[in-house]
Every structure is written in C-alpha cells, then in structure tokens.
Amino acid sequence: MAFSSLSSPGLPLLLRLEKPKLSFFTSNLQNPFDYFPQSSTLNPRHHQKMSRTSSSIKAQASVTDLGIVQRAIQLVQSSPPTWQSALLSNIIIFTVGSPLLVSGLSLSGIGAAFLLGTLTWRAFGSSGFLLVATYFVIGTAATKVKMAQKEAQGVAEKRKGRRGPGSVIGSSAAGCVCAFLSINGVGGEAFTRLWELAFVASFCTKLSDTVSSEIGKAYGKTTYLVTTFKVVPRGTEGAVSAEGTLAGLLASVLLASVGCLTGQINIPGAAICVIAAQIANFGESLIGASFQEKEGFHWLNNDVVNVINISLGSILAVLMQKIILQS
Are 127 and 262 contacting, i.e. CB atoms less than 8 angstroms apart? Predict the structure, then answer.
C-alpha cells in the first residue's frame, strides 16, 4: 500500500507546484549579494556630490600652491630689492648650493656668507650677488689646486681650504661698507655708482690676491720677496712669483668683466677695478714682507691684512674714478 501511494496522480502535481520556489531559493544562494543593491545606487546624488567636493578641494589646493609660487617669484624679482626679497633669494640659493658651500666654507663661515649674501642682494640686487658668487667659486677652486702638495710643504690653508667667518668678514669688509653706504643713500645719486664701483673693486682685489697666492704656491718656480727681491720659499709672507702674479691679474680681469656684463660697472670702470686691484695687492705684499709676523705686529694676521688690502683697492678705485670724472 505504501509503494502504491507514490504513484498517485496528486504527488507529481504537488512536486511541480513546489519546484519554482526551490529554484528561486537556490539561485539566490549562488550569488546572494546580487539580491542587495550596491552602495552607489543607494544614493547616486550623494556619490556625485562627494566626487565634486573632492575635485573642488584638489583644484583649490593647486591654485593655492600656484599662488604661493607666483608670489615668491614676484618677491625675488622685486625692483628695487627689499630685505624680504634678499632674504628669500638667499634661502633658496644657499639651500640649492649647499654642497658647494660646504666644500669651501665651515659651518660658521656659511652663516657669515649668508649675511653677506643677504646684504649684497639688498644693496645691489642679483647682479651684486652674482659677482660675489663668482668670486667664491673661483677663489675656492684656486685654493683646492694641488692641495696635497701645499699641505706637504706646509703652505696650505687650514681645514682643507674651508674658510671660517673671520676669513669671510676679512674678505668682504670693504664690500659690506659699500653696500651699507648704497642702501642708506649716502652722498645721494652722485655717489650711488661710486659705491657700486668700490664694491666691485674690493672683490676684484681680494680675488686677485687669493688666486695669485694659491697659484703661486702651487706652480711658482721662483718666489721673490718684494722688498729685497731675494729668492724665498713658497708661502713666505710678502713673496710673489711671475706665475702667481699673472694668474691674479687674469682673475681680476675676469671678475671685472662679470661686473661689466651684469651692468654694475662700465668698461672704463672695469679697467679701474683691475688697476686698483694690482696696486692694492702690491701694497699688501709690502705690508706682509715688512710687518707681518714681525716683533710687535703679531696682531697683523691674514684677516687684518685682507681688510687693509680690499679697503685700499676700493679707495683707489673711487679716487681714480673721481679724477677721471673731473678731467
């Protein structure tokens, strides 16, 4: 009786009626997440609003960054220069050029050079800064020439030629005075160009002195004392050589040409700077040979002699220019 009941006509009909419900259930088990809508379709307006807000924030950030860069460029290009433009320009340049600065200056020397650079930019703009930068690059390169040989002979600069703050100040004292005179308008318009000429002459004088000394110690075959013309060892205070003198002359011509090309001085002014530099350097050699390291003159070290040397070069340039203008 039990088996016969399975063949009753009502059972197939019941199975056929239940089959659609089972297939619907199994299809949803295969991919149950298809039954639920995605989050983006829950609130499409909200999704679009978030996208537009994100794009707006990015655009505003880009505009802000561009505005800051433009303002920085405008500040650097300020004419006449300001203290703000001078400070920003030096921060940028010293950051980019730090590897070169470290090779030629001690940490405290870099600090002194930063103050010099800021003052120079404020007084004479980018052209004045370029002149000082050229002086530093050439002077550092000359100091590094045959450094091992100079060290073996005991005539090399200390700290592998890395200059300290005393050297920076001693080399730029006259130029700093000229910068202050120019900033404060001492003498009025009639003296503005004179202070710039004296500024260029001071660095032409110092570069000529540095290059002649360093090249003379590296390549000078015969070194003479300027007071007696006796042959003396390389590195002797007040001694000169033909090789060093020629190199110093060419260095002053090169730096004066930079000043001429950047508009700081004209061609006659460049010639004045070169002549004043050579006269001042000869005077520096006389001072070194006659007084430096002598009894009673121990205070007359290299930094003091540098101040005297570059001051003499600046004063000579101003006097020569005044004589030319009067004639």
Answer: yes
